[in-house]
Write a structure and sequence with these properties.
Layout (H helix, E strand, L loop, with lengths): L4 E5 L6 H11 L10 E5 L2 H11 L4 E5 L16 H6 L4 E4 L2 H6 L4 H13 L3 E6 L3 H5 L3 H12 L12 E4 L13 H19 L1 H6 L1 E5 L7 H5 L6 E4 L6 H11 L2
Parallel strand pairs: 1-2, 1-8, 2-3, 3-4, 4-5, 5-6, 6-7, 7-8
Helix pairs in contact: 1-2, 7-8
Amino acid sequence: MRKPMIAANWKMYKTPKESLAFLDEFLPQVESHTASEIAIFPTMSSLGYVIEATRGTCVTAGAQTMHWLNEGPYTGQTSPTMLESIGCTAVLIGHSERRIYAHETDDMVNLKLKAALDHDLIPIVCVGETFDKREAGLTEAVLRWQVAVALNGIQGDLCGKLVIAYEPVWAIGTGSVATPRQANEAHAIIRHEVAVHLGQRCSQSTRILYGGSVKPDNVANLMAEPEIDGALVGGASLQPRSFLDIIRNATA
């Protein structure tokens, strides 16, 4: 059985003070929650505070990105060893906004995934097609390529912590959302590609999340699909009440 994961990507929102105010309201409401894993990915300036505030709770705190090297002359970057040193346990890799605005390539995603696994970080590898690619009938080709490159050189026995997030670029922050059927079909393509590279057992144990305008009123229908194991939530995770509603509706 794949335990659902509901993850909040706070992107470039919330100061440390605002992050702690969110958690003061949120954490008591999930104190006894066991139906899904909950993860929060705050800004780097808030990450240490969120890690400390969630220590001993059912909530995991992770980074929105990292470099693949442990150190070096890379201004503005954060290494996996730095994340480890503050108790970080998870990291987003290859989010579409990083691919677009920071020009991260598929090969960089592969390097980051290897580094995350080497440092015992839970990697959430993001993949997804643009609107133009979907309209051209290239969704399957894009997803297979992105997954294949991400998993290049990864050993099947290292995949226990692997999480993949399907985020159709055309649905992120737009209000548009893939239909449950569209999302499930994309997840099935991803799972098949994982099986090709890491084996059937690993494929069946890998959680694949859906991300792209997830809200309290659409998450239940998405989660009803057999290939969807959770959600990576953007804007709707910024308020405690709406994120709580997503968590509850996802496992109702």
